Amino acid sequence: MIVPLVSVVVPHYEGPHDLALVLAALELQDHPLDRLEVLVADDGSRQAPDPGPRPYPVRVLRQADEGFRAAAARNLGAAAAGGEVLCFLDADTVPEPGYVSAVVRAVVAGADLVVGRRRHADLSATTPDGLRRWFTGDGPAPREFDEPAWLREAYERTADLADAGDDAYRFVISAVLSTTRRLFEDTGGFEEAFSAYGGEDWEFAHRCWLRGARFRHVRDAVAWHDGPDFAGRTEDAQARLSRNVEGLTLARFVPGRATRGDQLVWAHPDVVVRLRDTGAAVADVVACVRSLLAGADAGVWLRDGAALAVLEDPRVHRGEPPAAVLGRARYRVDLDRPVELVGATLTDLAEVAPVRVGEHLSVRRTRDLHRGGPDVAVLQVPGVSAEPAPGVDLQRRWGHEDHQRRPRFQRSLRTPFVATERPTAAP
């Protein structure tokens, strides 16, 4: 087997002691050091870090101090890296000697994104020599702190992410994150709008998941964080403020009720609808858009956009959806003509996707599209339809002639739906 070149990217800011431990730990890796390079991405420290002489190539890259920009620092390091595997390690997270080789084994076995095991200890008094003695068994171990129980339980529940679903991104930690170069480049790297602690790893992982990446948590890839977990080192008020800042930024970029709740309109919708409106009557397009957007976190892109002369909804656009929007939406809908969705919302259908209603409307999962997932099924529910409706009379329609009597889509044992059999999407 050809041993891949691994690029270790270490974002750093004003932490010479921690960085010295990480660089010393990388000298002890059992992965061949001639197939290892290190890029220290400094986030505006007052003085440039000095990595010293090392038995592997190491470079220091710097960016201006414009706040907490760990995402940008990681992108800076990755852009200069030459490895097939990108291994991101925080400057206060010290890898055990088998860390890199465990990551490589997982990648060779088919993983696109690898999450190591982050453990916690008091490394404040540990020296590089003390670290070597600890890792070789010739010296004492530092005081250990508890691991986060919620992470441990999540990895057990998902068979180390092999059986994870759309919430897999919540179990990805950038301090012990590795990806293939191809995945990193395909997704565009970390979102640099994150300028405070936390969240950029979840947002990046969310896009990787939608791109079809295979996730794996590798328990043998152990790295030690200097200090307890966030919950154990932050006062309640400060923790709440930090979580709110992180949560609001996540809501901008990661669709779903878990991140953004309901009601508000976002630039990156959960469902992207592309509608071919060429030659269609404006009233038909308006009726179609109204039925699709009702109660859904969705955005509609019209090929021609003649209806935009009367539509003043920020969720409706002309042309093709931007790549950044497509890369974050969990669901896709493509329509070759206007239809009216009756008896269900796009949110209802997304919950049972992939699915088709009638001959024209189908809701597909973005991850399935990238992985060559299953064909959509035909959903057969009394009262649910999505059919062309030429010649819509909007005055009658909005005059409440009939819409109050339309049945609502119900997902319960009393009103089951029947769908043609569809295979389970590849994990």
Automatic annotation (TrEMBL):
Q: Which region ranges are annotated with the description Disordered?
A: 387-427
Q: Specify whether Transferase is a keyword of the entry.
A: yes
Stated EC number for the protein is 2.4.-.-
- Residues forming the Glycosyltransferase 2-like domain are 7-125
Q: What is this protein called?
A: Glycosyltransferase
Q: Where is the composition biased (Basic and acidic residues)?
A: 394-404
Which keywords does the record carry?
Glycosyltransferase, Transferase
- Enzyme type, top EC level: transferase
Instruction: Establish whether keyword Glycosyltransferase is in the entry.
Output: yes
- InterPro entries (UniProt xref): Galactosyl_T_C, Glyco_trans_2-like, Glycosyltransf_2, Nucleotide-diphossugar_trans
The segment(s) forming the Galactosyltransferase C-terminal domain are 169-218
- Naturally occurring in which organism (per UniProt): Kineococcus mangrovi
Q: What GO molecular function terms would the record report?
A: glycosyltransferase activity
Q: Which domain of life is it from?
A: Bacteria
